[in-house]
Amino acid sequence: MIDKAVELTGDAESAILMSFLNQISVTDSLSIGTQLKKTEIKDYDVVDFFSIVKPATALSPKLYEYELPGEFPFSF
After folding, report:
1. What is the DSSP secondary structure assignment for residue 2, as one 8-state letter?
2. CB 18 within 8 A of CB 39
C-alpha cells in the first residue's frame, strides 16, 4: 500500500488516508488489478518519475534468479 501511495501521490503519508478510503490496512498486500481510490497528489515530481520508472513492489516479477555454485573454494 505504501508503494502504491508513493507512486500515485508522491507521498508515503498518503498511504494512511488511502487505506482508510479503500477500507484496507496499510500493511495488506494488494492483488494485481485492485482498483484504488487515491488522494490528492502531494509531489508532482515524484509522481512524474514513477510514471516513467515503475517501482519494484511485491507484485513485481522476479528479474533475476541467482544460483550459487556447489561449494565455495574457501578454507579457514
Report:
1. H
2. yes
pTM over the 0.85 mark: no
Burial of residue 12, with CB atoms counted within 10 A of its CB: 0-12 exposed, 13-18 middle, 19 or more buried:
middle
- pLDDT tens per residue, range 27-52: 888 887 888 898 999 999 999 998 88
DSSP 12-65: TTHHHHHHHHTT--TTPPPPTT--------S-HHHHHHHHHSPPP-TTSPP---
Residues 6+ apart with CB under 8 A from 61: none
Q: 513492489: which residue's cell?
A: 57
